[in-house]
Design brief:
Layout (H helix, E strand, L loop, with lengths): L7 H12 L3 E3 H11 L2 H11 L6 H12 L9 E3 L5 H14 L6 E5 L2 H9 L1 E3 L6 E3 L26 H14 L1 H10 L2 E5 L4 H13 L2
Parallel strand pairs: 1-2, 3-6
Antiparallel strand pairs: 4-5
Helix pairs in contact: 1-9, 2-3, 2-4, 3-4, 4-5, 6-7
Length: about 210
């Protein structure tokens, strides 16, 4: 868990590689379901195409299906889910249904100013989805993707005004989840500032203590 841009996806991928378990994000589940043409994906596509939020009951079905696959039998890393108090209850139901348990919740932390700096400098390739940063990971030629030569763009939701709004939404929706997991004794904070490999070491230590 953590603010937008704190590095959840990057660290989840590293952690999954270390542990040999799948990386599960609701965004990835939705995209895969839509691309596969599966019935659940077709239902989700109608909401996504109109710009609406996919209903929680449909998200629950998708998560149950994904976590029920054989590769998740020995564990998995959830990335950015749950994102609301209602989704916490959803996850509890899913884990009970699958006979699984929540080993730990890891909160990556950073200041709002750091998040704005990170997201404001992020650039993406619209053709191959490669991600760069103007300060930390610039392309060899400014504004041009190293892999395919396409012009890099800034995502609309990385604009500073939008990032500030996303941080406000995070504070309203996600901080209550943090408090709930803290009360359960399963939450651990991990400093998300610094080089990705340094953050990965801190996260791995926290997981080992869970």
């Amino acid at each position: 868990m953590g603010m937008p841009g704190v590095g959840k996806g990057t660290q989840a991928a590293r952690l999954c590689q270390d542990l040999g378990v799948p990386h599960v994000s609701t965004g990835g589940i939705l995209r895969q379901a839509v691309a596969s043409g599966a019935p659940l994906g077709l239902r989700a596509r109608s909401y996504m195409a109109s710009g609406g939020l996919v209903p929680d009951d449909l998200v629950e079905e998708l998560v149950v299906e994904r976590l029920g696959r054989p590769d998740a039998g020995d564990g998995f890393v959830l990335d950015g889910f749950p994102r609301s108090v209602e989704q916490v209850a959803m996850l509890d139901r899913i884990l009970a249904r699958l006979g699984q348990r929540l080993d730990g919740v890891f909160l990556l932390t950073a200041s709002p100013a750091e998040i704005i700096r990170r997201l404001g400098g992020r650039r993406v390739c619209p053709r191959c989805d490669r991600v760069y940063h103007v300060d930390n990971q610039p392309p060899r030629s400014p504004g041009v993707c190293d892999a395919c030569g396409s012009a890099l763009v800034q995502r609309p939701d990385d604009a500073e005004s939008v990032v500030r709004e996303r941080l406000e939404v995070y504070a309203r929706q996600t901080l209550p989840i943090v408090e709930g997991y803290l009360a359960r004794g399963v939450l651990r904070e991990v400093n998300g500032v610094g080089e990705p490999q340094d953050v990965a070491v801190r996260l791995r230590l926290a997981v080992g203590q869970a």
